[in-house]
Each structure stands twice: as C-alpha cells, then as structure tokens.
Amino acid sequence: MPLKICGCLTLLCLLVFPFPGALASEMVKNASPKTTPGKYDALKRFSQVLDLVERHYVKDVTQTDLVNSSVKGMLQGLDPHSNFLTPEEFKEMQQTTSGEFFGVGIEISLENGQVVIVTPIEDTPAFRAGLQTGDVILSINGQAAQELSLQEVVSRIRGAKGTEVELVVLHSNAKTPQTFRIVRDAIPLISVKSKKLEDGYYWIRLTRFSERTTEELKEALKAAEKEAKKEGGIKGIVLDLRNNPGGLLDQAVSVSDLFLERGSIVSIKGRDEKNGHTYEASSQSDDIHVPIVALINAGSASASEIVAGALRDQKRALILGERSFGKGSVQKIIPLPDGSGLKLTVAFYYTPNGSSIQAEGIAPDMEMPLETPQPDDKDNQRFQVREQTLNRHLENAKQKKSAGKDKSTEAKEQLARDSQLRIALQLVKTLPKMQEIKN
Fold it and tell me: What are the tens digits of pLDDT across the range 335-384?
C-alpha cells in the first residue's frame, strides 16, 4: 500500500512540477520511432536511464553505485539465491566455508520479498536467543529488512565479536513481532557432532557442509568404532540432518558416498541437459554398512537434502521427521576481475530416482513432527547440544574434580527431550528386520 501512495505522489509532482524545458526537449530528441526491438535496444535504454539518473537525481549518486545496484536488482529478480557480491561481500562469503567469521549464527533466505530464517546454527548466539526456522526478520538495527538485498542483510547482521545487533523478528506462529538484542560471537565451523545413545548405537549430527565435513565425519565414526569395539562395533546410526542449511556440493557427495557402495547420489541439470552431470557412489574401504535412520525437518536444506534424497532413493536409510526445506538449485560462484563476484543459479538438483528437490523438498518415509516442550516442563526443555555432551570434548580442571552426570545419563536425558531422536533409535534397532532397507 505505501508503494501505491508513493506512486500517486510521484505522479502529482510530475503534473505540478514538470521537467525543465532543456530536459524535456532532450528526452524528445533522444526518443526514437517505434521499431522492432533489436539486440542492443535494452542496453541503449539502460544507458539512457543511467545517464538521466546520474545527472538529474535529487542526490549525487556515483555511476559505480548505480551500476552495482542495477546488477544486484537484475540478479535478485531472477531467484532468491542469485546475487551480486561486492569485493567485501565476496570475501565474507568465502569465510563462511573456510575461515572464522563473527555474527549471530543464522542461515537466511529471501522468500516472497521477506527475509526468512532457514535455520539457526547450533551453539551460536541466535540459537541460544531462541530464533527459529521460519522466523521472518523485519528489521536490523532499525532499518527495514525489505529495503535491503539478501547480502546486505548478511553484512549488517555480521560484525565484530562482542558487539550487539538488534533484530525485530516475527515468529512463524506469532501475531506480533519480538525484538532481540543479540551479542555477536565467533561462529563455530565444526560441522560434526556425535554421541553414544546406547551400546553400539550412535547419534551423528551434521550441522552444515563446510570444507572439512567429510573428514570430521570420518574422525567421529573412527572414534565411535573404537569406543564400540567391546560391544561388537557400531550396530546402527541415527544421522541427524535437522536444521542443516547445506553448504558445499562436493561435501554432500562425499558424505553420501561414505554410506553408499554404488549407484547415483545426485544429478545436476542446467539449461542444456547435455551439460548435466551425475555423481556416482564408489566402493571404499571406509564405507559404513550399518543400519541408518536419517532425521530431517523444515530447516534441512540444499546439501543436507542431497544426502537425505540419496539415502532414501537408494533404500540405504529410513528417513524420519518432517518435509525438508526444498532448496534444490545449484549456485556457481563466479569471481570478477575487481574482486567482486556473482552468485548465479545455474542448475537444479535431482535425487537418484529423478525427483527434483526444488520447492518440493524431501518427503520423509515416516512423517513425525517434533513434540514441542511445554514452557513449564523443566524436564523437557528445548533440545540443545553443548560442548560437554560431545565425544572427546576437553575437560577443564573443575570438571575433572567433579565429573557430574555420566555420558549414559546425558544420552537418556537427550532421548527424553527429543521425541524424533527417541523414535529414530527404536527404528534403527529394528531395521535389520526390514528387508527393504539395505544394510
């Protein structure tokens, strides 16, 4: 509605205060008779508009800013994931997969003009503050999020460690927005967590797909195998992909390959299907052969959907939880000579049976929503992972003196809090009896 009012005001101003004669005559002079649109007509029109804005706009705007804004608008008009990155933004993007960066710890997307939280990253300020999948960010430090590009939103939320950012957020199930003042911190890039649930049965949590995810997974599995040796080795795995926003394609492929001996993992098809590519699994010495139940939800996106789709279609795992996010497009990062870059959607993902993930997501074999803990239920608080609950965590001096709860007690408490994990454990124990699931 404000846009319509502004449009009316603009029209009124033009009627009352027409352009000066010089500008009006220039516009008439530059106008050309109607002809069949040529290849460069659109570029000619862009050049004319750029010149007019640069010379007559009420504020002084540089040509560089105008061109950058134009390119951003062009790419954002294509889909929510294509974007133009300034040199500073391009550098920030590279840090999210390979280096340390500071922020609040959320993955976001642009949906129908709104900035939506895909998932809060575990063990981050945003996660601890209570931000949730599906929340809409309305403003950042008082500036409306809808006025910003997706990359500009990211840049404003990030900042120096210890500084505060104010986010006005509308929860998906709320009618009024809530203000969060969150202190920025280092965002952990450790992407694999593990814990023994019962003798021989392990919970493996993938929080994202960064450069070392496959290596971290191998290390976690090796440690679990060593721990479970006295019980006859690992008997089953609950692979937790909930709220995993994705990441690097090659890591999704290599993680899937650890659980598959043969067959397709994922196919990529672009405008020209002849240039598509199918990633195949191969037999490896460190392949995992035990039964698997994989957990997904609405926060499972992109690379995590590739893994879930591959395990489901190859009948390698039972998929439990809720339908995934549905981000099934491939973005290529194209660096430009001046240090900037393009993030451009170039293809779509397809699961081994040929299903598109885009806007569809992965449907679980068994749909089961997570039971929401009641606010007054002290024994059933929101599922959270802490450093002290992880295998091979480092203890401080105080912990060594007072061990507190043992790992088996912590596992029981986690199972009591997390209904999906509890059911997944029961299922993974019975999978050997289900002939349609490959072991």
Answer: 999 999 999 999 999 999 999 999 899 999 999 998 755 444 443 334 33
pTM above 0.70, yes or no: yes
Q: CA dihedral in degrees (13, 15, 17, 21; nearest 10)?
A: 140
Assess whether 269 and 392 both reside in one domain. Answer: yes
327 is catalytic: yes
Question: Domain limits at 164?
Answer: 101-186
**118 and 168 co-located in one domain:** yes
User: 315 and 215, same structural domain?
Assistant: yes
Residue with tokens 């999978």: 431
Q: Rounded to the nearest 10 degrees, what angle do helices 419-430 and 407-417 cross at?
A: 110
Number of Cα atoms under 13 Å in the Cβ half of residue 390 = 19
Residue 4 above 70 pLDDT? no
Average pLDDT rounded to a whole number, residues 107-135: 88
DSSP codes of every residue in 263-302: SEEEEEEESSGGG-EEEE----TT---S-EEEEE-TT--T
- DSSP annotation string for 288-353: --S-EEEEE-TT--THHHHHHHHHHHTT-SEEEES------EEEEEEE-TTS-EEEEEEEEEE-TT
pLDDT in tens, 193-251: 999 999 999 999 999 898 999 999 999 999 999 999 998 999 999 999 998 989 899 99
**In whole angstroms, what is the distance from residue 414 CA to residue 421 CA?**
8
Instruction: Tell me the backbone φ, ψ of residue 176, rounded to 5 degrees.
Output: -125, 145
- The answer to whether the Cα torsion of 130, 217, 91, 115 is positive or negative is negative
For residue 394, pLDDT beyond 60: no
Concerning whether 406 is annotated as a catalytic residue, the answer is no
Distance from C-alpha of 194 to C-alpha of 222, rounded to nearest angstrom? 11
Helices vs strands, H then E, count in the chain: 13, 19
- In DSSP terms, 84 is beta-bridged to 342
**Options 123, 135, 313, 418, the catalytic residue:** 313
* Rg for the chain, CA atoms, rounded: 26
List the catalytic residue out of 82, 210, 302, 340: 302
Q: For 47-76, give one letter per residue: b (16+ CB within 10 A) or e.
A: eeeeeeeeeeeeeeeeeeebeeeeebeebb
- Residues 309 and 219 reside in one and the same domain: yes
The two structure tokens encoding residue 142: 């008082």
Domain boundary among 186, 202, 217: 186
Q: Say whether 313 is catalytic.
A: yes
